[in-house]
UniProtKB/TrEMBL annotation:
Domain Ketoreductase: 12-152
Pfam families tied to this protein: adh_short
InterPro entries: KR_dom, NAD(P)-bd_dom_sf, Sc_DH/Rdtase_CS, SDR_fam
Any GO molecular function: oxidoreductase activity, acting on the CH-OH group of donors, NAD or NADP as acceptor
Name listed for the protein in its UniProt record: 2-deoxy-D-gluconate 3-dehydrogenase
Alphabetized SMART domains for the sequence: PKS_KR
BP GO terms, sorted: fatty acid elongation
Family: Belongs to the short-chain dehydrogenases/reductases (SDR) family.
Species in which this protein is naturally found: Woeseia oceani
Gene3D superfamilies: NAD(P)-binding Rossmann-like Domain
PANTHER family from the UniProt entry: BLL7886 PROTEIN, SHORT-CHAIN DEHYDROGENASES/REDUCTASES FAMILY MEMBER
């Protein structure tokens, strides 16, 4: 296999949660372009359909499935549908996520639960359902959890998100440890700031512009700048990587204190 072929994903099936917008849509396009069949999962059917049509226009193959990652019954239903359709997952991108801002003294239990259930419990539920099938099939696989630089550093008003994303970083390592002997690699990507629905308006606001001045590369990321790290972790090119978190943040985490 040539070095270039090691990044190809022909014959593989990849499940991407939160694939109807932002990073998830980009991940779906990237994996499909590398040859994978992509399964697009989230709650808003119309957004998934938009992604499916973009993948199809680019010559890729995609199908949509309804999924609420916070709800165990919805996760089971989604996997039952995939089992019934004969789809087995080789690559999982656990990307669904939300954020809610609020100082901890004022944060409601509902907002805490929404953020932690989506960003942390959701990663567990979907990875568990995927890994169970990978274990049964015995062909290994690659799981990629989307963390954040807020899994390593903290920010006022984002306490629930920080707690969830730092949980994702160590959950990734624990999954890697438990499943390595079965050929299942588990890694994470920790993005810095990329303009999407999750931070609409923030990056162009005065506070967002000030924040970007602290990024060594002095700008937010462009979604395609996540393609390389994603393909590395998803493909044979990353065959000796498990338990790692790759930071893609323009140097934000190593900014001067
Ligand atoms: N953008 C950034 O700067 C940045 C930085 C670091 C990390 N991240 C992480 O990157 C991931 C993607 O975020 P994004 O920036 O692309 O934001 P986004 O455009 O808002 O995408 C998040 C996606 O998650 C889906 N989602 C939310 N709750 C869900 C649920 N309960 N079940 C299933 N799907 C759900 C949403 O689809 P539905 O509403 O249709 O379900 C949405 O398409 C998140 O984990 C986020 O924390 C983003």
């Amino acid at each position: 296999m040539s070095e270039r072929d090691r990044f190809r994903l022909d014959g593989k099936t990849a499940l991407i949660t939160g694939a109807g917008s932002g990073l998830g849509r980009q991940f779906a396009m990237t994996l499909a372009t590398a040859g994978a069949t992509v399964v697009l999962a989230a709650r808003r059917a119309e957004k998934l359909e938009e992604t499916r049509s973009l993948v199809a226009k680019a010559g890729g193959e995609a199908l949509c499935v309804s999924l609420d990652v916070t709800d165990g019954a919805s996760v089971q239903q989604c996997f039952t549908e995939l089992d019934d359709a004969g789809q087995s997952i080789d690559i999982l991108v656990n990307n669904a996520g939300i954020s809610r801002t609020g100082f901890l003294a004022e944060l409601s239990e509902a907002d805490w639960d929404a953020v932690v259930d989506t960003n942390l419990k959701g990663v567990f539920l979907v990875a568990q359902a995927t890994a169970r099938r990978m274990l049964e099939r015995g062909r290994g696989g690659s799981i990629i959890n989307i963390a954040s630089i807020l899994g390593f550093r903290v920010s006022k008003t984002l306490g629930s998100y920080v707690a969830a994303k730092s949980g994702v970083v160590n959950l990734t390592k624990t999954m890697a440890l438990e499943w390595a002997r079965f050929g299942i690699r588990v890694n994470a990507i920790a993005p810095g700031y990329f303009e999407t629905e999750i931070n609409t308006g923030f990056l162009s606001s005065p506070a967002g512009q000030t924040m970007l001045q602290q990024v060594p590369l002095r700008r937010s990321g462009v979604l395609s700048e996540l393609d390389g790290p994603l393909l590395l972790l998803a493909s044979e090119a990353g065959s000796y990587m498990t338990g790692s978190t790759i930071t893609v943040d323009g140097g934000h985490l190593c900014s001067s204190l």
